[in-house]
Amino acid sequence: MTATTKHEMAMRTVERIVAPPQAHWVGDGFHVHGFFPHGPLSAKRMSPFFLLDYNAPTNFPPREEPYGVGPHPHRGFETVTIAYKGKVEHHDSHGGGGVIEEGDVQWMTAGSGLLHKEFHEQERSRQGGLFHMVQLWVNLPAKDKMTPPKYQAITNAQMGRVELPDGGEVEIIAGEFDGVKGPATTFTPVNMFNVRPKKGTTVELAFPANFTTLVLAVEGSGRINDSDVLPTDHVALLATDGERFTIEATEENSTFLVLSGEPIDEPIASYGPFLMNTQAELAQAIDDFNSGKFGHLE
Ligand code: MN
């Protein structure tokens, strides 16, 4: 922001409220509503975000063998896993691995490529219980698609935190809210917050008008701009006609995941777990995968 004050910024209207699409299984561990790219919202409109899979709170019965999805590759983007309930254990072909604990976020840069597997943490799987998670894919600009793979394991305690004047708080994973920065480093400008206003109170947010901006009601429900009702598990896609908008919590313990990012204005070529700019790059990714260049993982 330069000299512009909040009062001079235009309101950003709601483009649409999107109900959760029919859920599908990823492996046997993730029962997800796919809002995009195969759902109601197009990949081009949602850039820099490419995929949003939302595992609404789901009860998993106790099982000795952990629920999850076995080894699979990724190249050309980042996967961001937000564990609201339950824990996710992961391992990759570079020898990395760990557990995403409840309340934590894993920001994985697949970049040039790796194989990984994602399972419910062993002990939680044995106990059974509620599992509630978001996985978001963030595209990388062409110049960074082949960057070396890396992880950012972001614990809840590391997140930026702003107490709201009327009660509640904002947890900042990436980007900046009210002068407080989130710990995640990103390749293009991305804001990612958990916004938790107290019931009956409103929080105002502002991002550059051209940023793709959406709000997912992960707990409770709310209203955007004092008018558009946002029920639980629904997404509000904001228009690009202004900067600022408000979220009101209309239930106790509401949590809204706010995502806002600068669109990457480059061609998209995608095939399964590969996200590149051209068909030739996709063919190369498939060749590299088939010839073992992503490494090996049992
Ligand atoms: Mn994966």
Relative strand content: over 45%
Which parts are unreliable, with pLDDT below 50 for 5 consecutive residues or more? none
Encode the helix/strand succession as letters: EEEHEEEEEEEHEEEEEEEEEEEEEEEEH
Number of helical stretches of at least 4 residues? 3
CATH architectural label? Sandwich
Output the radius of gyration: 19 Å
Task: Provide the helix percentage.
Answer: under 10%
* Main beta sheet strand tally, sense and closure: 7 strands, antiparallel
CATH C-level name: Mainly Beta
Q: Please count the beta strands (DSSP E, at least 2 residues each).
A: 26
Sheet with most strands: strand arrangement: 1-22-19-24-17-14-13
CATH superfamily: Jelly Rolls
- Which class best fits the helix and strand makeup? mainly beta
Bound molecules: manganese (II) ion
N-end to C-end Cα span: 49 Å
Task: Give a brief description.
The protein is mainly beta. The chain is 7% helix and 49% strand. Residues 72, 74, 79, 116, 118 line the site of manganese (II) ion.
Verbal overview:
The structure is a single chain. With 298 residues, the protein is mainly β. The protein has a single domain (10-283), classed as Jelly Rolls, CATH 2.60.120. 7% of the residues lie in helices and 49% in strands. It has three helices and 26 strands. The chain has helices spanning 43-46, 122-127, 279-290, and strands spanning 14-18, 24-26, 30-36, 49-60, 68-74, 77-85, 88-92, 97-100, 105-109, 114-120, 129-139, 150-154, 160-163, 168-174, 176-177, 180-181, 190-197, 202-206, 212-219, 222-224, 228-230, 235-238, 244-249, 255-261, 269-271, 274-276. The chain has a seven-stranded antiparallel beta sheet with strand order 1-22-19-24-17-14-13, with no helix packed on it. A hairpin with a 3-residue loop joins β2 and β3 (30-36). The longest helix has 12 residues, at 279-290. It is globular and about 55 Å long. The structure holds manganese (II) ion (MN). Residues 72, 74, 79, 116, 118 line the site of manganese (II) ion.
